[in-house]
Every structure is written in structure tokens, then in C-alpha cells.
Design goal:
0% of the residues lie in helices and 51% in strands. It is an all-beta fold and 126 residues long. Strands 2, 4, 5, 6, 9, 10 and 11 form a seven-stranded mixed β-sheet that branches. Strands 1-3-8-7 form a four-stranded antiparallel β-sheet, with no helix packed on it.
């Protein structure tokens, strides 16, 4: 079992920054990612990182603005969001892949991930 505890969401003005945190407990994971879902839209990929090697992937819409990182000692993944735009408004979900031992899965696919957090609301005003 894997438990994910998210924090860091909130209300921010356009151009501002937020840092989301996702703390993992339970069995080991091989990758963790962030997805978001706006009202009336499908859940979409934002960013992901492989736990051991630190390889990262980003959605085109956030490249250059968002940075995903990890703290191995704290079993925590962060998403630093800079230059936020109103279109970034969504519920942000942390996800964990506990199955891909060989690291061959697609980091950008929802189907890669086995566990999900409850989500944290990010609202960007202008």
C-alpha cells in the first residue's frame, strides 16, 4: 500500500508562485507525478519524476515554468509552479507508480500510476 499526503494548494495572483508537496509512505515507488483536472475537463499530465534516477518529464504547457523535484530523505516530491496563469487553475493530484520496477513505463500516462492523492485546489486569479 502507498499513502500520499498533499499540501501547498491555494489562491494566487497571476504571475505568482506556489509550491506543492506530496509526501509518500508505504511501499517503495518507482515514479511520482502530478496531474491536474479543471471543471469539465479530463485529468491531464503536468510533470513526473523517476525516483531513483531523477529523470523528469513535463507537459508542454508548463515547461519552463514548473519544476518537479524530490527529497529522498523525506520521501517527498515537490512541484514548484512559477509564472502561474489563470489556465493553470485546477485540482492538482499527486500520483505514484509502485509497479514499474524496470522504469519502462510512460511517465505521462495516467495508466502508469497505481495510487492517487486526494487532490489540492490551485486557483490563479487575474
Amino acid at each position: 500500500q502507498v499513502q500520499l499526503v498533499e499540501s501547498g494548494g491555494g489562491l494566487v495572483q497571476a504571475g505568482g508562485s506556489l509550491r506543492l508537496s506530496c509526501a509518500r509512505s508505504g511501499r517503495t515507488c518507482y515514479a511520482m507525478g502530478w496531474f491536474r483536472q479543471a471543471p469539465g475537463k479530463e485529468r491531464e499530465f503536468v510533470a513526473a519524476i523517476r525516483w531513483s534516477g531523477g529523470n523528469t518529464a513535463y507537459a508542454e504547457s508548463v515547461t519552463g515554468r514548473f519544476t518537479i523535484s524530490r527529497d529522498n530523505a523525506k520521501n517527498t516530491v515537490y512541484l514548484l509552479m512559477n509564472s502561474l496563469k489563470p489556465e493553470d487553475t485546477a485540482v492538482y493530484y499527486c500520483a505514484a507508480d509502485a509497479s514499474d520496477y524496470y522504469g519502462s513505463s510512460d511517465l505521462k500516462s495516467l495508466n502508469t500510476y497505481d495510487y492517487w492523492g486526494q487532490g489540492t485546489q490551485v486557483t490563479v486569479s487575474s
